[in-house]
Amino acid sequence: MSAVFSANLAKQLLEFTPKVIGFPLAKVPFSLKAKVISQLLRVLLAPQTHLDELNFLEDKWVAICVEDLQLAFEVSFDGQWQVRPLTDAQVTFSANSAELILVAAAKEDPDSLFFQRKLSIQGDTELGLEVKNLLLSIEFATMPAPIRLSVAKLAAAIERLQIEAKPTSILAKLASF
């Protein structure tokens, strides 16, 4: 019975933690969120910026929707990062926070998530593929240490919870013997 309890607790943590985080996040003014997002993009994509690999984003807007956090915004790049509320993006990426963290930590492949319907890409397919390839070009090992360590710890916790959330199927198999 403890395995069932543990599995249920893990499922609840995976489901309710984003809601708990999303509530105060919703109270933060968009201007502050936009500033943090643009600074984060500037740091994470600095090598691509210096190599002029972001030109394809000029005059294009990419929407990011973190569904379980109720966080949605659009980004563009014209020599500097621009962030705005959702209006009229050419392509939209939507997923829950756990999947996005696993992708950022290089623990999950965006294509796999797409085919499992855990990542949605809508709009301009060509732009979406360019953005996906850009994100895949970010070397996890070269991220600044505070970001890399935080993402790695979150990804490890998510993976443990996902494993813990599955013992009910193992118990069902054992019960059938």
TrEMBL record:
Listed pathway(s): Cofactor biosynthesis; ubiquinone biosynthesis
Pfam families attached to this UniProt entry: SCP2
Keywords: Ubiquinone biosynthesis
Domain SCP2 as annotated: residue spans: 43-135
Key word Transport present: no
Protein family (similarity comment): Belongs to the UbiT family.
Cross-referenced HAMAP family: UbiT (MF_02231)
Function text: Required for O(2)-independent ubiquinone (coenzyme Q) biosynthesis. Likely functions as an accessory factor.
Name of the protein in its database record: Ubiquinone biosynthesis accessory factor UbiT
Organism: Shewanella morhuae
Organism phylogeny: Bacteria, Pseudomonadati, Pseudomonadota, Gammaproteobacteria, Alteromonadales
Gene transcribed to yield this protein: ubiT
